[in-house]
TrEMBL record:
GO terms for molecular function: catalytic activity. Residues 484-739 form the Reverse transcriptase domain. Pfam families: Exo_endo_phos_2 (PF14529), RVT_1 (PF00078). It comes from the Eukaryota. GO terms for biological process: DNA biosynthetic process. This is Reverse transcriptase domain-containing protein. It comes from Araneus ventricosus. InterPro entries: DNA/RNA_pol_sf (IPR043502), Endo/exonu/phosph_ase_sf (IPR036691), Endo/exonuclease/phosphatase (IPR005135), RdDP_mobile_element (IPR052560), RT_dom (IPR000477).
Length: 768
């Protein structure tokens, strides 16, 4: 493992490089839609330890593959008949394509990148449809290394059959036309066996460019509980990975860590005090981060990524039973012709018992797991309803180039998510002449540092617990740093680098940049400073009564409940007075990501907040960077607009800008409220004509504010509910686009419904 810190840059990217000593191992299996075969898969994987599993005809329930760990990365074809599973936590795949009958990923080994395809074609289906899908991927990747695991149900003597059929001929023509190599061995065991019928429908193919690599291919004797056998393919290139270090800081060695920091910390404290400008402060901050990282490397172990483990319900009795079933199958295969049928009957009966044994053990293990629950929404709840939210892998975007490295794909994602503003922002311009705030007090800093631990650290790997330990022993270092930042109006650049983690939005296309929510993991030292700044800004806004009461998000004393109650009260009152009521739900496209920095600066100046706090926020938003880590290294982009999702200040800065539209003068019959970036307008009127006119006027007012702040509305997601006995729906438009009327919409996790009147407006979203 390479413990280098800087990776050719002055910033403390605390990255480790890890390579396994084992060749890349790919397991291939048609699971025959069998639940038992899917249950068996995890145990087999824990024994064979594959990096990649290519499956066909997997068992599906509620659009997921039950029986496999939620930590496995899963990629499925559109028809869910083919999938690629990544049980190895070290492997970071990138989604290349999802088609009806196939799915393709690209992974990085220590020597090269390789595209892996899993595909299935039913005997009842025209095989050309599937071959065409594979063809499209191959054609887009000339000269690149490709391996294909597919059940194409074609007969040909080249892969084991005694004769050829038309499907087999078509498949062979496809193989030859694309200069592919058949890795299957003609004399191998059948990959399919059902009663007395055997076959070789499962193919493993590779591109010509991969044939120079040492490839091993074997049909395994492992029990699969499917009518197909496992196929193992190994390629002589190891798995390579880069990751940000995470230290085991909860398990002692704190005294050694503090002693390692030693006198250097006092030297750095003096250096920070002596800093006269932002350049000197930036350098001192990097030195502090580096000092802490070096002390961590000498004191703490690095958190290891989880290995592939057996299912928690697997028992020694099951292991013995599995070996017995395997032995009976072997005896049947080797038995003389006269005994073979009887031997197979014995094997089949024992296999059926083994299936029941697995089912009983799995159910018993599940009951035991659930009985140990100590929290109603703990890991048992998450396991039952698959509520764990796991980060997404890097995709190759639809409008991107499928050729090239994962690092290139990551750069494309950053370029499409983190856009640059049309007009460059002047970060040095502030007209604030307000009195400055006093320095941060020791009590203030200690209170922020004592916030709950457990949050993920940023690029330097320094977590909350380390900050607490350092502050307790060296209680001047952080106050000195933070107050020097306040004095110089400088937020150090090394504390503004966000490690981006992508989370896919539910049901969205995996290959569109807009389908991902980017969360920034920021350095913990920077998060403490950001929290201190945000508290000062919030205190100023509260003490000057500057925040509008109709903002319910991220406000002390406000909540989802207050927002819902206010909305209901407005609708109820208007309906009781006999008014027509229109409720308009407004969706702002990427509100946090697209918020312009100059809009924030304008709002900061208008708030009359202390001048040094104002300037420190200017510095916070300047020279920001975001980074995505791949097995080949980092992709990096400047962040010139938006509030980082995951930052302490983001919600407060958004509320500050949104305050402007809430504070505008609205007609008496128009009510506006917000929960962060979720805006709702409630318009009431005596007639349908005035309802439309007043709604259009309100839309025009809101639209003007959006234009001034360079925010865009999603007219597809903006809609309205009508509470009225009107026969015809009023025609509502936004800049020429029709706004749809709906019977209900989801607002802050609940459903607002017009079907039965205001008394039953809300129906809680049903828990699974």
């Amino acid at each position: 493992m390479d413990n280098s810190i800087f990776e050719n840059t002055q910033f403390p990217y605390n990255i480790a490089t890890e390579s396994s000593n084992e060749p890349l191992k790919i397991l291939q299996i048609n699971l025959a839609r069998a639940k038992a075969a899917t249950n068996q898969l995890q145990e087999t994987a824990s024994t064979i330890k594959p990096d990649v599993i290519l499956v066909q005809e997997q068992y599906i329930n509620n659009n997921v593959i039950p029986g496999i760990p939620q930590t496995w990365k899963t990629f499925s074809s559109s028809n869910q008949k083919a999938a690629i599973l990544i049980p190895s936590p070290k492997l970071k795949p990138a989604l290349l394509a999802t088609k009806v009958n196939m799915v393709a990923l690209k992974i990085q080994t220590s020597s090269f990148s390789i595209t892996i395809i899993s595909s299935y074609s039913s005997p009842a289906q025209n095989v050309h449809t599937t071959l065409q899908e594979i063809q499209e991927i191959i054609s887009s990747l000339p000269e690149e290394k490709i391996i294909i695991g597919a059940d194409l149900n074609g007969h040909n003597t080249l892969w084991g059959y005694r004769s050829n059929d038309n499907r087999g001929k078509d498949i062979l023509d496809f193989i030859l036309a694309n200069n592919l190599n058949i890795i299957n061995k003609p004399d191998a065991l059948p990959t399919f066996q059902r009663n007395n019928s055997v076959g070789w429908p499962d193919l493993t193919l590779c591109s010509q460019s991969l044939i120079d690599s040492s490839i091993n291919w074997e049909v395994l004797e492992e029990i699969s509980l499917s009518d197909h056998r496992y196929i193992e393919t190994t390629i002589a290139s190891t798995v390579a990975n880069q990751f940000y270090k995470r230290y085991k800081t909860r398990h002692g060695n704190h005294l050694r860590f503090l002693n390692t920091l030693g006198k250097e910390i006092y030297h750095l404290e003096r250096k920070i005090k002596a800093a006269r400008n932002s350049g000197e402060l930036n350098n001192a901050t990097i030195e502090l981060q580096t000092l802490i990282i070096n002390a961590c490397n000498k004191s703490f172990k690095i958190k290891k990524q989880l290995l592939i483990t057996k299912p928690n319900w697997w028992t020694e009795q099951l292991e013995i039973h599995k070996k017995k079933v395997r032995a009976l199958r072997r005896r049947a295969q080797r038995a003389p012709e006269i005994e073979r049928q009887a031997r197979y009957q014995v094997f089949k009966k024992e296999k059926a018992k083994y299936k029941r044994h697995i089912k009983q053990a799995r159910n018993m293990g599940w009951r035991k797991f659930c009985s140990a629950a100590s929290h109603p929404y703990g890991k048992q709840y998450k396991a039952a309803f698959r509520k764990s939210v796991v980060p997404s892998q890097i995709p190759y975007l639809i409008n991107g180039d499928p050729k090239g490295s994962l690092q290139k794909a990551a750069q494309n994602i950053l370029d499409q998510i983190f856009l640059f503003p049309a007009i460059p922002t002047n970060y040095n311009l502030t007209t604030s002449t307000q009195p400055p705030d006093p320095p941060f007090s020791p009590q203030e800093i200690s209170a922020v540092i004592e916030l709950p631990s457990g949050k993920a650290p940023g690029i330097d790997g320094i977590d909350n617990l380390l900050i607490k330990i350092i502050h307790k022993r060296f209680n001047n270092i952080f106050p000195t740093l933070f107050n020097k930042c306040l004095h110089l109006s400088c937020f150090p650049d090394s504390l503004k680098i966000g490690n981006i983690i992508l989370f896919q939005k539910g049901g969205k296309d995996q290959r569109l940049a807009s389908s991902y929510r980017p969360i920034s993991l920021l350095p913990t030292i920077g998060k403490v400073l950001e929290k201190l700044m945000t508290q000062r800004l919030t205190y100023h806004l509260k003490s000057t009564n500057s925040l509008n009461d109709r903002q319910h998000g991220f406000r002390e004393g406000k909540s989802v409940d207050t927002a819902i109650n206010e909305l209901l009260r407005k609708i109820k009152t208007a309906r009781r007075d006999g008014k027509h009521v229109l409720v308009l739900s407004i969706d702002i496209k990427g509100a946090f990501d697209n918020l312009q920095h100059r809009a924030i600066f304008k709002s900061l100046d208008a708030s009359a907040c202390p001048s040094n706090i104002n300037r420190l926020f200017h510095s916070l938003l300047q020279n920001r960077k975001v980074t995505l880590l791949t097995p080949q290294g980092r992709a990096t982009k400047d962040q010139k607009q938006g509030c980082p999702q995951g930052s302490c200040s983001g919600p407060a800065l958004w509320n500050l800008v949104a305050n402007e539209i809430l504070n505008q003068v609205w007609p008496d019959n128009v009510h506006i409220q917000a929960f962060a970036d979720d805006f709702v307008l409630v318009i009431k009127a005596d007639t349908s004509k005035s309802l439309v006119e007043d709604t259009q006027s309100a839309i025009s007012q809101f639209s003007s504010w959006c234009s001034e702040n360079e925010l865009a509305i999603s007219t597809e997601k903006t809609n309205y509910i009508l509470f009225s006995k009107m026969v015809r729906s009023p025609k509502i438009t936004w800049n020429g686009y029709k706004i749809n009327r709906v019977k209900s919409f989801k607002y802050l996790g609940i459903h607002v419904d017009d079907s039965t009147g205001w008394s039953t407006l809300i129906s809680k979203e049903r828990k699974p």
